[in-house]
Amino acid sequence: MCVGVDRNKYQIQIPLPPKIDPSVTMMTVEEKPDVTYNDVGGCKEQIEKMREVVELPMLHPEKFAKLGIDPPKGVLCYGPPGTGKTLLARAVANRTDACFIRVIGSELVQKYVGARFDEGVGGDNEVQRTMLEIVNQLDGFDARGNIKVLMATNRPDTLDPALLRPGRFDHKVEFGLPDLESRTQIFKIHTRTMNCERDIRFELLAKKTYSNMTCN
């Protein structure tokens, strides 16, 4: 479903018809994702970090106001594909009863670069313009604490340093490949709704999936 958003109040206004500007279709909106922390396996440390820097400021902004400090605006989640970055972001949105809006950055750049190539304009300039617009939008969010930007990437080394300066993405959370204990937990999570034998040796299965990612 695609919706129109009031940029001043940050509220969803109206559903949009199917035939709309292609840039809007890049956004996927979930008013409240159905993913919880219990659905995210192998990310104990990452969950604790996200609860500290995202959940706490959204559920208890008065604590930050009392201390006279601004809550973090953004969090960079990085690591190999399929290690739970987006899944955890959805779980945080569920816990904070927040609307989750997902935008795929590569599609955003490709759309505008492709359009400008058709007009005979170089792609590098369009990438820079897109980056500048993203930075401007990040700086435009006020410090009320009710909007959080979570950026997920598997190539943090390719990010523009302008994105990572203080005041934009102040916190970084690394997602690595799951260890033995984490893989065992993941197996238990994904089989809890299955009709399985009770004596399944999940740890043995975990040992046989060494170096596998969560999505495998």
UniProtKB/TrEMBL annotation:
GO terms for molecular function: ATP binding; ATP hydrolysis activity. It comes from Vicia faba. PROSITE patterns: AAA. Pfam families: AAA. GO terms for cellular component: proteasome regulatory particle, base subcomplex. Residues 71-179 form the AAA+ ATPase domain. InterPro entries: 26S_Proteasome_ATPase, AAA+_ATPase, ATPase_AAA_core, ATPase_AAA_CS, NA-bd_OB-fold, P-loop_NTPase. Keywords: ATP-binding, Nucleotide-binding, Proteasome. SUPFAM superfamilies: P-loop containing nucleoside triphosphate hydrolases. Belongs to the AAA ATPase family. PANTHER family: 26S PROTEASOME REGULATORY SUBUNIT. This is AAA+ ATPase domain-containing protein.
